[in-house]
Structure formats: C-alpha cells, structure tokens
Amino acid sequence: MNHDRIVITGIGLASPNGNNLSEFRKSLLEGKSGVEFIETHYMEPVLAGVCHFDALKYQARKSIRRGTRAGSIAIYCSREATVDARIDMEKEDTSKIGVYLGITEHGNVETENEIYNIKKYDYDVKVWSHHHNPRTVANNPAGEVTLNMKITGPHYTLGAACAAGNVGIIQGMQMLQLGEVEVAIAGGVSESIHTFGTFASFKNEGALANHSNPAKASRPFDKDRNGVVVAEGGCVYILEKLSRAIARGAKIYGEIAGYAINSDSFDFIMPLSKRQAECMCLALKKAAIKPDNVDIISSHATSTPQGDIEECIAIREVFGNTTSTYINNTKSYIGHAMGAAGALELAGNLPSFQDKIIHPTINIENIDHKCEMKSLVINAPKKVEKVDYILNNSFGMLGINSVVIVKRFEK
C-alpha cells in the first residue's frame, strides 16, 4: 500500500440551493434554503429539497429517458468535478480512473413508478419498461457515469445509508493508496425524493418534517424540530495522490487526513452516541491529531428529536463543551440528501480553509437544552482566525457511522 498523501483537486455538486460550489457556498453564507413543497404519489404535498440543475448539459434526452435520476445527478456532478479539476479526459488512461459513489438506496424509484403505471393497464406486464433491470441494479449511478464519460476503470456504488457520502470518499482514497487507480471520482448521490415510500415510511415513523414555511422546516437542534426533510442531490470529488496533483499543477482544496467507519450494533433506526464518539476518536487517531486541533465539526444532525441529541452527546464526549471547535449543520438549508449528505456537507465547509468563515446552522429559534453547545454557530456566519481541520460526521440507519477529516493543504 502506498501511503502517499491524498488530496481533493475537483468538486462537482448539485444541491437544492446551488449547482456548483460557488453557488452552494453563497447560499450557505446568506441563509438561503432549498426546500419546497412537491407532489408525490398517494400523499398530500410533502416538503423536499429539490435540485434544479441542467441534466442536458452533459446528457442527450434519449440518455436521460433511458437512465435514472440518480444517474443524471452522478453524471452532472462527475463531469463538473472533472472540469473543475482541469482533467482532460482525452489525455487520460481511463482504465486508471475509478468511480466510487455512495448511495442510500437504489431502484425504489423505478420499481414504484412501473407498478404505478401498470396499475392503469390492469397490471399488464407488457407495459413494464424493458429498461427496468439496468435502471435498478445497485451499481447504476456509477455505471452511468462510466458510460457517459467513457471510463474503463473500476466502478461501483457503496450502500451505506446516510453515511454513504463519506464512505464513497473513503473508498476512493483507499483505492488510490492501493495503487488500483490514479484518479478517483468519489462521493455520494441520492434521488430519494422521487420515491413516495421514503416519505410514507418517515411519516409513519413520526419522523417526517412538517411546517407551513418550507424554508423553516429543517431545524436541527431547535426544540420545535419535528423530523426529516428528504432531499435529493449529489457531490463528487476528484481525488489524487499529492505527487500527481503537484506534477500537473492542480489546485488543491484540501488533504484527507483521517477517516473512520464503524457500526452501532444497536438498532435498525435509533443511533447510539457511544459508537458515534468512538468513530470520531478513531478518525482523530488516524489523522494523528487531538480534538482541540479540529476547527469545524460539520454535524450530521437530521432534525429528528433523539437523533440530534445522540450526536450532541457524542460530540461533548469527544470534544467536551468546546469553545474552540465550532459546530455547524448544512441540512438546515437543504434537508437530508441521504447518500449525498456527507459529501455535500463537507463541500459546503471546504471554502472555510481560505475565507476563514464558518457557515451557520439556520432555523434555530429556541435551542433544545439537550443540544446546547457553546461553539454551535447559529443563524449568522462566524469569522475566525484560522481553519486547519474540518471533521465531517455522517451517520446512517442500521447503525453505520462514518467520519472524514480534511486538513488545510500545506506542501
């Protein structure tokens, strides 16, 4: 295994409040939400974080019809990341490029829609789409990227629930260190708002957000929070070894310093603060830093009552009631982008290395006393003297936890 340093040289994203890093960051600093009401099968209008990117920028209409929404998001983000990294695909050995995308789930949208459609024809399977199988295989989003970009290296998706965005990044890093690829296209994508089942399940759990004002619906840490705002989105990174990045004169957003993945082994849905704390500690150990070296904690908090509390307990266990490590949350703007969440939330914080501004958590009007933390950045950006390390939390159902630590790049 080659332990050469791994750096981020490109970012492509589609979020409910921005379709590139500049737009996304501007929205986070200005408090701009991307949540709106949408229609879904069998239910009254629901709140969702909706992306409005131009899929036709990199795909033909026929390709969009044949493929999936997750595939379109993945293609858009991967293409944008490659352009941002100034990688000329015509000059690359594409057998040495790998695509590693985290997902929460895949295939639900297509299956639900086909069943909904054949109901109109007395369930005659003759009208079932012959594209169904390639649309629903789990590797679909990553596979669509390779087809679109003519990449012949390895591709797969990583099912890691809502920890998947981080997990995609971690896998890309590991494959670079193993020498399997020279460029990793890594991150996470989600099309979750296009399946009514996700909304119905959260509603029946009592965990679906409800608010008359969409912009105020996602409110992590607030005592009046009442559940998740489901969102779609994607964020893809170009990862390279430092030696290659320097050799080609690439700009560098940051260096991956540490990471960790573990399991609660506790419950299907409920999180466990003890294991979350252990995951953060393991990531800190791999990064060879102490808690007080971390400048920003990008929290996972989904705006569910117990979930937010458990993470706050974990953060306090590892960092104490810190005043030097600032804490923020991105879901308060866009909702929970599921498989894309961790990757998007990290991206929104990376510009802090340069501008030394920490975007806030919005929609906190009355803090839940169980979520009070002295360094939680609330409702207005915070200017600081330095940002050297960002710790990105991302946790998921069935008790999967992931943490990625990125450091400010220095030669």
Features:
2 domains; Peroxisomal Thiolase, Chain A, domain 1; ten-stranded mixed sheet; globular; alpha/beta; 15 strands; three-stranded mixed sheet; 411 residues
CATH superfamily of the largest domain: Thiolase/Chalcone synthase
CATH level 3 topology of the largest domain? Peroxisomal Thiolase, Chain A, domain 1
- Order of helix and strand elements from N to C terminus: EHEEHHEHHHEHEHEEHEHEHEHHHEEEE
Low-confidence stretches: none
Number of domains: 2
Summarize this entry quickly.
With 411 residues, the protein is of the alpha/beta class.
Give an account of the 3D structure.
Helices cover 33% and strands 20% of the residues. The chain has helices at residues 21-30, 61-66, 69-84, 108-119, 132-136, 140-149, 164-177, 196-205, 242-247, 273-287, 305-319, 331-334, 341-349, 352-355; strands spanning 6-14, 35-38, 46-49, 97-103, 155-159, 183-190, 230-231, 233-241, 254-263, 296-298, 326-328, 357-358, 382-383, 389-396, 400-407. A hairpin with a 7-residue loop joins strand 2 and strand 3 (46-49). With 411 residues, the protein is of the alpha/beta class. The radius of gyration is 20 Å and the shape is globular. It has 14 helices and 15 strands. It has a 10-stranded mixed sheet, sandwiched between helices. Strands 2-3-7 form a 3-stranded mixed sheet, with no helix packed on it. It has a two-stranded antiparallel ribbon with strand order 12-13. The protein has 2 domains: 6-247, Peroxisomal Thiolase, Chain A, domain 1 (3-Layer(aba) Sandwich); 260-407, Thiolase/Chalcone synthase (Peroxisomal Thiolase, Chain A, domain 1, 3-Layer(aba) Sandwich), CATH 3.40.47.
